[in-house]
Amino acid sequence: MKIPMLPLICIIGLMFFFGTIFLYNSEQSQGMVLGESDYNLDIVLDMETEELNQGQKPSEIIDFGYSGFLESVNKNIEMKFPVTPQKSDTYKKDFELGCSGAVIDIGSGAVLFKEKSEEQVPIASITKLANALVFLDQNPDWDSFYKVKPSDITEGGRIYLGAGDEVKLKDLFYLALVGSANSAARAMASASGFNEDEYVQRMNLKMKEQGLNNTNFVDPMGLSGFNVSTAIEVSKLAKSAFSKEEIKDALSKKYYRFQTKSGRSIGVYNTNILIGSSEDNIKILGGKTGYIYAAGYCFVGKFVNDQGIELISVVLGSHDMNSRFTENKKIAKWAYDNYIWK
């Protein structure tokens, strides 16, 4: 039987046409539009959902529309592009800080602002961040109780605890960071099972392991003028501290209340008066204050803007209580205004 050629050619042509459309749509559903496949190789998948739950926004959200891009994840895929800060076209530094200061970009580690940032100076109670890191290294049982010793009671600042008080390790930790309580900070060292000299050695070793060679401590509270660092190294210490959920949570609280084992209630306000404040689309997520006469007024804070860009800002040796906050906000805002992230 002779097959008519014209109808056969038409059928083959239609099959080829619809087949091409099908393949094109299939590629679209896989997120592989022509010219974008190499681009997608540079995408960094942000699978750290815990970071997102903690308020760290991805730099960019891409909806690929179909789960076929990765069968193991949902339709809306959180994607994070590596972004680096670059000086803006209007970059301008028209002020002097007058004390040690630094600002770093958390994502890239880039130093955005520095003034006397390599000068080794006392850092007062910012010391407690290193104490907290060492304390967490001991994997504390948060619900276990510690009986405060007479040797834990320390002058300097408000004294919340008395000898014989039994408090949970979690409450010691939060009391030291939220209220900057020196007795609680000293008790943390004792509760870890080390004498104070051994504990301070561990703090110093921790700093050396992180490459902070100009940072040194002689006590776990920050009362000595020989607890020293630089603005740059304090920013790196704070970045490390804020990466710990327990520290980040403590430093984000405006107020903390707990009870001793005997039922005595203790409440403490955060020494960081900026906590939770937002201005010019910039919010402070937490921070640590410090003051002794030798150090002046100190503050290190973590900021985020409405684009999700996070910075660490440090001021050491400011001249009064309020200026350490206003100067810190000033240099953080300057960094956001004078850099772009792309």
From TrEMBL:
Pfam families: Peptidase_S11 (PF00768). Belongs to the peptidase S11 family. Keywords: Cell shape, Cell wall biogenesis/degradation, Hydrolase, Membrane, Peptidoglycan synthesis, Signal, Transmembrane, Transmembrane helix. Substrate binds at residue 288. The active site is at residues 125, 128, 180. SUPFAM superfamilies: beta-lactamase/transpeptidase-like. This is Peptidase S11 D-alanyl-D-alanine carboxypeptidase A N-terminal domain-containing protein. It comes from Candidatus Falkowbacteria bacterium RIFOXYD2_FULL_34_120.
